[in-house]
């Protein structure tokens, strides 16, 4: 059957009927262990009862009012986020890309409000992914996402990942901010080392720049801290979050200090659906769990166990796995084989993982997983790696078999 959905995704031939915690149930009843979490979105797993209750209760009351009126649920969520982070103010959006758009506009507006409208360029890093809008694909700088959508949006200066000299050289009188992901997700689960993040913070302070962090994928407990930059002991001026903050409900947020946001006065930015009562109810429910005593301790403990078991997988399958990288429950397997081979083999074993750049397979399980799910995932991944190895062996032996047959 021909689909009426715009064909911009190469979708796997899988359709799911329901989810239960870390598990997805496909049409036909087969169960899959979900170590992709909708690309780090279902942070608390599928159908979490606290989130379901919050959404159901709010859904029976009020869905949408617009931002023309007071928003008590949004006020509560913004206050909780501010109290738990560096931020003073929060702007709610529907997605990570919109949160990044707000962040970019805010940084430019800050300098304009400070009397320096010429400071409107933002330094970004190779391998980054900040969204699919015209501004965010320009910020990411990856040609595969920009091809055919020219002219490119101006205002971004990209430097190689980890190149400190290039970063310093890119800063000029027009530079407004530095934008980066503390851990690149789509770029291959590449963490920025804490000492480098501290150096970038100092560089911003030295030159009067704003530091914008994209924690859309690595935030909301994913690394074992509420936000990944906390591992470095620094704070940004502006931060974009999404994905896990809604636990599966579409939601994003731009967090900022009062100083960084000083140019954002009534009329400078807006949204129709951002901050709607349904999203705010779910966002508050997510924080109920993520901020609860012991939750992040559980994430760190589970992450340590998973990394230890993945190191064993690497040792058992050195022809497949080259490196285990990442932080917390945001883990990448750098591979010797095409990452699509392992993703497909894992799927055949009932384990869902996600490809990324730099030939990496990502593991982004729900933050609520326990030892049993880790053990089951490792067993399935072990079989998947063996399956890939068997395919490699068959390919190398095939030419010899043909020659023997010809001689006979």
Helix and strand content put the structural class at: alpha/beta
Total strands: the figure is: 17
State Rg: 22 Å
Net shape = globular
Q: Ends: how far apart?
A: 47 Å
The biggest sheet, with number of strands, parallel, antiparallel or mixed sense and barrel status, is: 7 strands, mixed
Mean pLDDT: 95
Helix residue percentage? 25-40%
Q: Per DSSP, what share of the residues sits in E-state strands of 2 or more residues?
A: 15-25%
Widest beta sheet: strand line-up = 4-12-11-10-7-5-6
Oligomer: single chain
Structural description of this entry:
Strands 4-12-11-10-7-5-6 form a seven-stranded mixed beta sheet, sandwiched between helices. The chain has helices at residues 37-40, 49-59, 72-84, 96-113, 134-140, 143-146, 164-170, 194-207, 277-290, 295-316, 339-348, 371-407, and strands at 16-20, 23-26, 31-34, 89-93, 121-125, 156-159, 175-180, 183-184, 190-191, 210-214, 238-241, 252-256, 321-327, 330-335, 351-352, 354-356, 360-363. With 408 residues, it is α/β, with parallel strands linked by helices. Strand 2 (23-26) and strand 3 form a beta hairpin. The protein is globular. Residues 401-408 have low confidence and may be disordered. Helix 2 packs antiparallel against helix 9 (277-290), helix 3 (72-84) runs parallel beside helix 9 (277-290) and helix 10 packs parallel to helix 12. The protein starts with 15 loop residues before the first strand and ends with a helix.
């Amino acid at each position: 059957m021909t689909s009426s959905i715009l064909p911009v995704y190469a979708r796997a031939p899988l359709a799911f009927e329901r989810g239960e915690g870390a598990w997805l149930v496909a049409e036909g009843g087969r169960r899959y262990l979900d170590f992709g979490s909708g690309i780090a979105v279902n942070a608390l797993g599928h159908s979490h009862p606290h989130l379901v209750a919050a959404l159901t209760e709010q859904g029976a009351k009020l869905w949408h009012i617009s931002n023309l009126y007071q928003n008590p649920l949004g006020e509560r969520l913004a206050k909780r986020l501010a109290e738990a982070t560096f931020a003073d103010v929060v702007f709610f959006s529907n997605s990570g890309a919109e949160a990044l758009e707000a962040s970019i506009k805010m940084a430019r507006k800050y300098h304009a409000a400070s009397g320096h409208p010429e400071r409107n360029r933002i330094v970004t890093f190779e391998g980054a992914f900040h969204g699919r809008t015209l501004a965010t694909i320009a910020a990411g700088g990856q040609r595969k996402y920009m091809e055919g959508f020219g002219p490119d949006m101006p205002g971004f200066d990209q430097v190689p990942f980890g190149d400190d000299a290039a970063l310093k050289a890119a800063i000029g009188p027009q530079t407004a901010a530095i934008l980066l992901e503390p851990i690149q997700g789509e770029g291959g689960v590449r963490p920025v080392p804490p000492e480098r993040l501290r150096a970038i913070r100092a560089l911003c302070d030295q030159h009067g720049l704003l530091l914008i962090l994209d924690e859309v994928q690595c935030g909301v407990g994913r690394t074992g801290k509420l936000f990944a930059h906390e591992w470095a002991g620094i704070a940004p001026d502006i931060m974009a979050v999404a994905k896990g903050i809604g636990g599966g409900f579409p939601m994003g947020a731009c967090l900022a200090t009062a100083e960084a946001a000083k140019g954002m006065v009534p009329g400078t930015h807006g949204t129709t659906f951002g901050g709607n009562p349904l999203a705010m109810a779910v966002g508050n429910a997510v924080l109920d769990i993520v901020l609860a005593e012991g939750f992040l301790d559980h994430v760190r403990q589970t992450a340590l166990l998973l990394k230890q078991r993945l190191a064993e997988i690497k040792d058992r399958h050195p022809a497949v796995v080259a490196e285990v990288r990442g932080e917390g429950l945001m883990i990448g397997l750098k591979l010797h084989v095409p990452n699509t081979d392992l993703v497909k083999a894992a799927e055949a074993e009932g384990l869902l993982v996600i490809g990324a750049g730099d030939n990496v397979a990502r593991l982004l399980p729900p933050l609520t997983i326990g030892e049993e799910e880790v053990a089951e995932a490792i067993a399935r991944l072990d079989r998947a790696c063996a399956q890939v190895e068997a395919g490699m062996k068959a390919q190398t032996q095939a030419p010899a078999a043909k020659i023997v047959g010809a001689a006979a």
